[in-house]
Amino acid sequence: MKEKLILLATILMFASCGTKKFNQKWLEKKAPETFKARFETTQGNFDIEAKRVWSPKGVDRLYQLIKYGYYDDVAIYRVVPNFVAQFGIHNDSIINKSWREGIEDEPVVLKNNAMTISFARGAVKTRSNQIFINLKDNNRLDTADYSGVVGFPAVAKITAGKDNVLKFYDGYGDKLGTQQGKINKFGNAFLREKYPKVDYIIKAYLIK
User: Fold this and answer.
1) How far apart are alpha carbons 173 and 165 in whole angstroms?
2) DSSP 8-state code for residue 207
3) Cα–Cα distances in angstroms (integers) from residue 158 to residues 41, 48, 129, 148, in the given order
4) What are the structural domain ranges in the chain?
Protein backbone atom coordinates (compact mmCIF):
# COMPACT_ATOMS: atom_id res chain seq x y z
CA MET A 1 0.00 0.00 0.00
CA LYS A 2 2.85 2.33 0.90
CA GLU A 3 4.53 1.68 -2.45
CA LYS A 4 1.29 2.51 -4.30
CA LEU A 5 0.94 5.81 -2.46
CA ILE A 6 4.54 6.74 -3.30
CA LEU A 7 3.95 5.87 -6.97
CA LEU A 8 0.75 7.95 -7.06
CA ALA A 9 2.51 10.92 -5.47
CA THR A 10 5.32 10.66 -8.02
CA ILE A 11 2.87 10.57 -10.93
CA LEU A 12 1.00 13.60 -9.58
CA MET A 13 4.25 15.48 -9.09
CA PHE A 14 5.37 14.92 -12.69
CA ALA A 15 1.90 15.74 -13.99
CA SER A 16 1.86 19.06 -12.14
CA CYS A 17 5.38 19.90 -13.34
CA GLY A 18 4.38 19.31 -16.96
CA THR A 19 1.21 21.42 -16.79
CA LYS A 20 1.48 25.11 -17.45
CA LYS A 21 -0.99 27.18 -15.50
CA PHE A 22 -2.56 30.58 -16.07
CA ASN A 23 -3.27 33.19 -13.44
CA GLN A 24 -5.92 35.79 -14.29
CA LYS A 25 -4.07 38.29 -12.12
CA TRP A 26 -1.22 38.28 -14.63
CA LEU A 27 -3.43 40.41 -16.89
CA GLU A 28 -3.36 43.14 -14.25
CA LYS A 29 0.44 43.37 -14.16
CA LYS A 30 1.67 46.81 -15.18
CA ALA A 31 4.86 47.12 -17.22
CA PRO A 32 7.74 49.42 -16.27
CA GLU A 33 7.76 52.68 -18.19
CA THR A 34 10.51 51.12 -20.35
CA PHE A 35 11.62 47.52 -20.65
CA LYS A 36 13.81 45.36 -22.88
CA ALA A 37 13.43 41.73 -23.87
CA ARG A 38 15.16 39.06 -25.92
CA PHE A 39 13.52 36.58 -28.28
CA GLU A 40 15.50 33.44 -29.04
CA THR A 41 14.42 31.99 -32.39
CA THR A 42 15.39 29.25 -34.79
CA GLN A 43 17.19 31.91 -36.84
CA GLY A 44 18.99 33.57 -33.93
CA ASN A 45 18.11 36.19 -31.34
CA PHE A 46 16.50 39.57 -31.63
CA ASP A 47 16.08 42.17 -28.89
CA ILE A 48 13.28 44.68 -28.36
CA GLU A 49 12.64 47.84 -26.40
CA ALA A 50 9.12 48.87 -25.34
CA LYS A 51 7.85 52.08 -23.73
CA ARG A 52 4.44 52.47 -22.10
CA VAL A 53 4.03 55.95 -23.56
CA TRP A 54 3.67 54.35 -27.00
CA SER A 55 0.61 52.29 -26.03
CA PRO A 56 0.09 51.75 -22.28
CA LYS A 57 -2.40 48.88 -22.51
CA GLY A 58 -0.52 47.25 -25.39
CA VAL A 59 2.88 47.49 -23.72
CA ASP A 60 1.43 46.13 -20.48
CA ARG A 61 0.09 43.09 -22.33
CA LEU A 62 3.37 42.53 -24.18
CA TYR A 63 5.20 42.67 -20.85
CA GLN A 64 2.78 40.16 -19.31
CA LEU A 65 3.15 37.74 -22.21
CA ILE A 66 6.94 37.83 -22.04
CA LYS A 67 7.24 37.81 -18.24
CA TYR A 68 5.02 34.77 -17.84
CA GLY A 69 6.57 32.68 -20.62
CA TYR A 70 3.77 32.76 -23.16
CA TYR A 71 6.06 32.93 -26.20
CA ASP A 72 7.98 29.73 -25.44
CA ASP A 73 7.85 27.38 -28.47
CA VAL A 74 5.55 29.61 -30.51
CA ALA A 75 5.51 29.44 -34.32
CA ILE A 76 6.26 32.44 -36.52
CA TYR A 77 3.51 31.08 -38.69
CA ARG A 78 2.74 34.01 -40.99
CA VAL A 79 5.66 35.61 -42.81
CA VAL A 80 4.61 37.72 -45.79
CA PRO A 81 7.63 38.96 -47.78
CA ASN A 82 8.21 42.70 -47.55
CA PHE A 83 5.26 43.07 -45.16
CA VAL A 84 5.05 41.33 -41.75
CA ALA A 85 6.14 38.38 -39.64
CA GLN A 86 3.37 37.34 -37.26
CA PHE A 87 3.25 34.99 -34.27
CA GLY A 88 1.37 34.37 -31.03
CA ILE A 89 -0.73 31.22 -31.35
CA HIS A 90 0.47 29.09 -28.46
CA ASN A 91 1.17 25.40 -28.97
CA ASP A 92 -1.17 24.62 -26.05
CA SER A 93 -4.77 25.47 -26.98
CA ILE A 94 -5.78 25.99 -23.34
CA ILE A 95 -2.95 28.46 -22.72
CA ASN A 96 -3.73 30.18 -26.02
CA LYS A 97 -7.38 30.63 -25.03
CA SER A 98 -6.45 31.92 -21.58
CA TRP A 99 -4.59 34.85 -23.13
CA ARG A 100 -7.28 35.75 -25.67
CA GLU A 101 -8.92 38.41 -23.48
CA GLY A 102 -8.72 41.59 -25.56
CA ILE A 103 -7.35 44.90 -24.34
CA GLU A 104 -8.69 48.38 -24.97
CA ASP A 105 -7.88 50.06 -28.28
CA GLU A 106 -5.49 53.00 -28.28
CA PRO A 107 -4.37 55.67 -30.76
CA VAL A 108 -1.19 55.26 -32.79
CA VAL A 109 1.77 57.05 -31.20
CA LEU A 110 4.67 54.96 -32.50
CA LYS A 111 4.25 54.42 -36.24
CA ASN A 112 4.51 51.09 -38.02
CA ASN A 113 7.98 51.69 -39.37
CA ALA A 114 10.32 48.85 -40.30
CA MET A 115 11.26 46.66 -37.31
CA THR A 116 8.52 47.93 -35.04
CA ILE A 117 6.11 45.50 -33.39
CA SER A 118 2.32 45.84 -33.18
CA PHE A 119 -0.56 43.70 -31.98
CA ALA A 120 -2.70 41.97 -34.58
CA ARG A 121 -6.44 42.45 -34.17
CA GLY A 122 -9.72 41.71 -35.87
CA ALA A 123 -12.14 44.30 -34.53
CA VAL A 124 -12.82 46.45 -31.47
CA LYS A 125 -10.88 45.38 -28.35
CA THR A 126 -9.29 42.29 -29.92
CA ARG A 127 -5.58 42.97 -29.33
CA SER A 128 -4.61 40.02 -27.17
CA ASN A 129 -1.75 37.57 -27.77
CA GLN A 130 -0.73 37.82 -31.43
CA ILE A 131 1.85 40.35 -32.56
CA PHE A 132 3.57 41.13 -35.84
CA ILE A 133 6.90 42.58 -36.84
CA ASN A 134 6.84 45.16 -39.61
CA LEU A 135 9.40 44.02 -42.16
CA LYS A 136 9.26 47.41 -43.91
CA ASP A 137 7.66 50.82 -43.32
CA ASN A 138 3.96 49.92 -43.23
CA ASN A 139 2.64 53.39 -42.49
CA ARG A 140 -0.75 52.68 -44.05
CA LEU A 141 -1.38 50.63 -40.91
CA ASP A 142 -1.12 53.83 -38.84
CA THR A 143 -4.41 55.12 -40.23
CA ALA A 144 -6.13 51.99 -41.54
CA ASP A 145 -9.80 51.94 -40.52
CA TYR A 146 -10.34 48.25 -39.87
CA SER A 147 -13.58 46.91 -38.37
CA GLY A 148 -14.34 50.12 -36.53
CA VAL A 149 -10.87 50.80 -35.14
CA VAL A 150 -8.35 53.21 -36.66
CA GLY A 151 -4.70 52.22 -36.78
CA PHE A 152 -2.43 49.54 -35.31
CA PRO A 153 -0.39 51.10 -32.48
CA ALA A 154 3.20 49.90 -32.44
CA VAL A 155 4.30 48.82 -28.96
CA ALA A 156 8.01 48.07 -29.37
CA LYS A 157 11.08 48.45 -31.57
CA ILE A 158 13.65 45.82 -32.49
CA THR A 159 17.03 47.11 -31.36
CA ALA A 160 19.28 44.16 -32.25
CA GLY A 161 19.10 41.06 -34.43
CA LYS A 162 17.29 42.65 -37.37
CA ASP A 163 19.18 40.45 -39.81
CA ASN A 164 17.87 37.36 -38.01
CA VAL A 165 14.30 38.58 -38.35
CA LEU A 166 14.77 38.90 -42.09
CA LYS A 167 15.82 35.23 -42.22
CA PHE A 168 12.42 33.91 -41.08
CA TYR A 169 11.11 31.51 -43.70
CA ASP A 170 8.66 33.33 -45.96
CA GLY A 171 8.08 30.70 -48.63
CA TYR A 172 4.55 29.99 -47.39
CA GLY A 173 3.62 33.64 -47.76
CA ASP A 174 0.15 34.48 -46.46
CA LYS A 175 -1.08 30.89 -46.82
CA LEU A 176 -0.89 30.17 -43.10
CA GLY A 177 -2.86 33.30 -42.30
CA THR A 178 -5.91 31.30 -43.36
CA GLN A 179 -4.91 28.25 -41.28
CA GLN A 180 -5.20 29.85 -37.85
CA GLY A 181 -8.11 27.62 -36.86
CA LYS A 182 -6.07 24.47 -37.44
CA ILE A 183 -3.01 25.94 -35.70
CA ASN A 184 -5.22 26.81 -32.72
CA LYS A 185 -6.65 23.31 -32.62
CA PHE A 186 -3.66 21.11 -33.43
CA GLY A 187 -0.73 23.31 -32.41
CA ASN A 188 2.84 22.93 -33.60
CA ALA A 189 2.31 19.28 -34.50
CA PHE A 190 0.15 20.40 -37.43
CA LEU A 191 2.74 22.93 -38.56
CA ARG A 192 5.69 20.58 -38.26
CA GLU A 193 3.92 17.96 -40.32
CA LYS A 194 2.41 20.17 -43.02
CA TYR A 195 4.72 23.21 -42.99
CA PRO A 196 8.11 21.99 -41.76
CA LYS A 197 10.05 25.11 -42.73
CA VAL A 198 8.19 27.41 -40.34
CA ASP A 199 10.49 29.18 -37.86
CA TYR A 200 9.81 29.39 -34.11
CA ILE A 201 10.25 31.57 -31.09
CA ILE A 202 12.18 29.23 -28.78
CA LYS A 203 11.65 31.50 -25.78
CA ALA A 204 11.36 35.16 -24.84
CA TYR A 205 12.44 36.82 -21.61
CA LEU A 206 13.12 40.20 -20.04
CA ILE A 207 16.67 41.58 -20.06
CA LYS A 208 18.33 44.53 -18.37
Assistant:
1) 15
2) E
3) 14, 4, 18, 29
4) 26-207
* CB hemisphere CA count around 120 (13 angstroms): 16
What does the pLDDT look like over 21-66, one tens digit per residue? 799 999 999 999 999 999 999 999 999 999 999 999 999 999 999 9
**Structural contact between residues 74 and 89, judged by C-beta atoms closer than 8 angstroms:** yes
> pTM of the prediction?
0.89
Strand partners, 74: 201
Residues 144-173: tens digit of each pLDDT: 987 889 999 999 999 999 999 999 999 999
Q: Where does residue 43 rank: exposed (0-12), middle (13-18), buried (19+ CB within 10 A)?
A: middle
Q: Which residues pair with 150 in a beta bridge?
A: 145
The residues with which 48 forms a beta bridge, in sequence order, are: 37, 158
Please identify, in words, the CATH class of the domain defined by 26-207.
mainly beta
